[in-house]
Amino acid sequence: MPSYIPLTQQKYCCLPCCIQWVMLRRGLNLISQDEMAKDLGVVIAPEDQRLFNIKMKVAGKLPQDRLGYGTWVYKIPQFLKKHKISLAVERHYPSKIGDIKNFLCENLKAGNDIIVSFNMAAYAKPGSGVNYGHSCVVDSVTVKNKNVVVTLGDPAYSHRKFFDIDLQKLLNGMSTKYGEEKSFKVFYEKCPK
Q: Which tens digits make up the pLDDT trace of 142-166?
């Protein structure tokens, strides 16, 4: 079972911060969230450039297909290669995985790290108006009262660092109900050449 030291994200930087959790657990040198966000293609609101020490990609108006600012494209493999980080990553969509509980458990047992992206609306109180994408680290999987429960490590400054979510709620938040299907990103040690 992975054991993470929680870190807190900079605005829009849940995915970069989750990658920092992975790097820290594996004893790798950390890279600033500013630099990671730029390399990962994070898009921010113009008024928030003041929060970053690096010139970021800004969008004055959100495209119709976006719920909010943040990571709009998948650039993790390019980021790992650019910084010569000895990890590989694979994306897995729930619709393509047979037994998701087994998939998660087997990857955690193998010592792999899993970052999951989902829409927080699936976790929020109904009627709260919460509707945005977020990334967390999968810390563990358990069964409670016959329900599969996933413990997530959350980088958000406004959330507990670890919380439980029913696997079905998580999968609901990853589904096409909230736009494009979200994925699990599995990090593992890259084989030396």
A: 999 899 999 999 999 988 999 999 9
- Distance (Å, rounded) from C-alpha 3 to C-alpha 8? 16
Cβ neighbors of 121 (< 8 A, separation 6 or more) are: 130, 131, 132, 173, 178
| CA 77 to chain centroid | 14
Extract the tokens encoding 159.
């959330």
The runs of H, that is alpha helices, within 64-163 are 76-82, 100-109
Q: Model pTM?
A: 0.91
27 against 45, higher pLDDT: 27
Residue 168 gets which letter from DSSP?
Answer: H
The share of the chain scoring above pLDDT 90, in percent, equals 66
Q: Residue 143, Cβ neighbours under 10 Å: how many?
A: 10
pLDDT mean over 18-24? 97
Identity of residue 132: Y
Sheet holding 113-119, edge to edge: 87-92, 184-189, 113-119, 133-144, 147-153, 162-166
Q: What is the pLDDT of residue 67?
A: 58
| Domains assigned to the chain | 14-189 (3.90.70.10)
User: CA-to-CA distance for 33 and 96, rounded, in angstroms?
Assistant: 31
